[in-house]
């Protein structure tokens, strides 16, 4: 039975009916094998769909870098982004069935993995609830934990835009995940990751703020890697560890109404980060959570030129909520 599921489901174009937690149903399937199966299916479906024309080609027309306060920001002019419709041009929900041919990667119990038609990186996917949940609603434990499994499968990072002001373009809740190659231009995330090895056990409970973004309301919290990466870490433990970090960050941001909380969330294997937003555009430049990774994407020559002329950190400061607070439980680096 197990071999039949893998033969007919995981390695076809669509893995219909594949159930999250199947590694628990069959003793021979571990979490590592489950993640590896997800990775293979995403790669397979992306390559097939790219060849069949569902995915807009990820063509980089121009690229350049800017160093500000020791951080190398990478800017790319991506052809496919100019073809992406704005929210008022979409009359139907593209994240529910019936899907376009080549869009669905696999079904995972209550969630679907879908290919992003307008990728910001090859193998860019969306993890989407099968039933409509509004983008502004709070994440559930199983949703965040599954997103963590998928980002681990791709060795990449996940990002989320809560509102239009934070870069969201659809009302149906979705978190986006890009693979390991995306880290090459995400130097803010690389900088945070480097700090993990310099932090003592006593400081593990503290939050982090980045010195070059100190005027912006944002917080970073590292996961407890000793527990999360332990071979005995089951699904329940993983869910609780990730969700605890999520709630700690929300509490640190003093969120009263999650539906009104405009923010970007970024999650890697090591940490979670929240940036509080106030607007989506400044000086003709707009970006979502990806911008706060250190990787900036322009959809046309005009945006590209403005990114060349304007300080990146100045843009970030104007897109986010200001923060001049002093915190006893926050380290700055």
UniProtKB/TrEMBL annotation:
Give all residue intervals belonging to the ATP adenylyltransferase C-terminal domain. 223-320
Question: Where would I find the Ap4A phosphorylase 1/2 N-terminal domain in this sequence?
Answer: 37-182
TM region(s), chain numbering? 6-23
Superkingdom per UniProt = Eukaryota
Pfam families tied to this protein: Ap4A_phos_N (PF19327), ATP_transf (PF09830)
Which keywords fit this entry according to its UniProt record?
Membrane, Transmembrane, Transmembrane helix
GO MF entries:
ATP binding; ATP:ADP adenylyltransferase activity
Say yes or no: keyword Transmembrane helix present. Answer: yes
- An example Gene Ontology biological process: nucleotide metabolic process
Among PANTHER family, the record links this protein to: AP-4-A PHOSPHORYLASE II (PTHR38420), PUTATIVE (AFU_ORTHOLOGUE AFUA_5G14690)-RELATED (PTHR38420:SF1)
Return the protein name. Answer: ATP adenylyltransferase
Q: What is the lineage of its organism?
A: Eukaryota, Sar, Alveolata, Ciliophora, Intramacronucleata
């Amino acid at each position: 039975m197990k071999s039949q599921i893998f033969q007919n489901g995981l390695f076809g174009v669509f893995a219909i009916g594949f159930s999250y937690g199947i590694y628990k149903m069959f003793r021979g399937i571990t979490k590592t094998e489950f993640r590896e199966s997800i990775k293979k299916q995403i790669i397979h479906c992306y390559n097939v769909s790219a060849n069949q024309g569902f995915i807009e080609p990820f063509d980089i027309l121009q690229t350049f870098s800017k160093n500000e306060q020791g951080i190398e920001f990478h800017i790319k002019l991506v052809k496919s982004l100019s073809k992406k419709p704005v929210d008022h041009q979409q009359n139907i929900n593209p994240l529910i069935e019936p899907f376009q041919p080549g869009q669905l990667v696999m079904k995972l119990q209550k969630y679907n993995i879908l290919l992003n038609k307008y990728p910001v990186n090859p193998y860019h996917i969306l993890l989407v609830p099968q039933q409509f949940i509004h983008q502004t609603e709070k994440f559930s434990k199983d949703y965040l934990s599954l997103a963590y499994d998928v980002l681990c499968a791709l060795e990449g990072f996940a990002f989320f835009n809560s509102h239009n002001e934070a870069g969201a373009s659809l009302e149906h809740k979705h978190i986006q995940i890009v693979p390991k190659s995306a880290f090459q231009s995400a130097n803010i995330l690389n900088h945070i990751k480097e700090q993990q090895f310099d932090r003592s056990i006593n400081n593990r409970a503290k939050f982090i703020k980045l010195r070059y973004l100190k005027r912006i309301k944002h917080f970073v919290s590292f996961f407890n890697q000793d527990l999360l990466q332990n071979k005995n870490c089951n699904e329940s433990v993983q869910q609780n560890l990730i969700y605890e970090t999520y709630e700690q960050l929300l509490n640190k941001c003093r969120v009263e109404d999650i539906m009104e909380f405009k923010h970007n969330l970024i999650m890697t294997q090591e940490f979670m980060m929240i940036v509080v937003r106030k607007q989506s555009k400044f000086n003709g430049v707009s970006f979502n959570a990806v911008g706060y990774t250190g990787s900036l994407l322009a959809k046309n020559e005009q945006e590209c030129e403005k990114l060349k002329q304007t300080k990146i950190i100045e843009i970030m400061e104007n897109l986010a909520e200001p923060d001049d607070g002093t915190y006893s439980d926050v380290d700055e680096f």
